[in-house]
């Protein structure tokens, strides 16, 4: 999959720097447009970028529970949970998403699937019912590159660009996400856009 993605990016005129790491990230504006920023790498290269997105595998933000639930922490700071997503040693506390020690890829689908199980178990707990066990979701990787290209992998099987284009090409799945929450995607009108004048 990585080779296919690299080939696709190269075809689109996008270069990928392997084996590099940015050494001046603390001087860079991230997740917001800032034209002409210069990133310096540890190997001495410079990269000019207008938009920088970090995806470094950030440390878990566990400050709010690390003392209270210290006995349930794994060495990397995650919470140890059972098959019902209950925190080890705390029968009435559930955990979900990135803070759990579940051995699975934490994808955008994970919070929704965890929330369904926690909801069912909270209701069951109030009614002395049977708890639902969480089953990890199928590994699906869809990377769109613009509206007309991408790469896809489902359960380790590569499926080309069609699934990525169909699922993400139009709106990056925003429509599905909003609909699942029972909401409509807001439509910007010229007089509602940030910074526009009526």
TrEMBL record:
Q: Which GO terms describe its cellular component?
A: mitochondrion
Q: Name one GO molecular function term.
A: flavin adenine dinucleotide binding
Biological process terms in GO annotation:
apoptotic mitochondrial changes; positive regulation of apoptotic process
So what does this thing catalyse? phylloquinone + NADH + H(+) = phylloquinol + NAD(+); menadione + NADH + H(+) = menadiol + NAD(+); ubiquinone-10 + NADH + H(+) = ubiquinol-10 + NAD(+); menaquinone-4 + NADH + H(+) = menaquinol-4 + NAD(+)
Q: Does the keyword Transferase apply?
A: no
| Required cofactor(s) | 6-hydroxy-FAD
Protein name per Swiss-Prot or TrEMBL: Ferroptosis suppressor protein 1
Q: Which organism is it from?
A: Ciona savignyi
């Amino acid at each position: 999959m990585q080779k296919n993605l690299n080939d696709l990016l190269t075809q689109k005129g996008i270069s990928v720097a392997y084996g590099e790491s940015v050494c001046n990230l603390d001087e860079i504006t991230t997740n917001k447009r800032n034209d002409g920023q210069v990133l310096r790498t540890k190997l001495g290269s410079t990269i000019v970028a207008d938009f920088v997105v970090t995806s470094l595998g950030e440390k878990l933000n566990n400050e709010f529970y690390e003392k209270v639930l210290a006995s349930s922490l794994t060495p990397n700071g995650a919470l140890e949970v059972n098959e019902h997503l209950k925190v080890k040693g705390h029968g009435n506390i559930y955990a979900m998403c990135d803070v759990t020690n579940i051995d699975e890829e934490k994808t955008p689908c994970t919070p929704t699937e965890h929330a369904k199980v926690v909801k069912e178990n909270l209701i069951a707990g109030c009614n002395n019912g049977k708890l639902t066990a969480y089953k990890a979701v199928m590994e699906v990787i869809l990377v769109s590159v613009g509206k007309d290209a991408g790469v896809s992998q489902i359960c380790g099987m590569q499926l080309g660009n069609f699934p990525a284009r169909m699922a993400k090409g139009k709106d990056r799945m925003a429509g599905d996400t909003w609909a699942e929450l029972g909401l409509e995607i807001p439509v910007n009108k010229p007089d509602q856009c940030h910074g526009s004048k009526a």
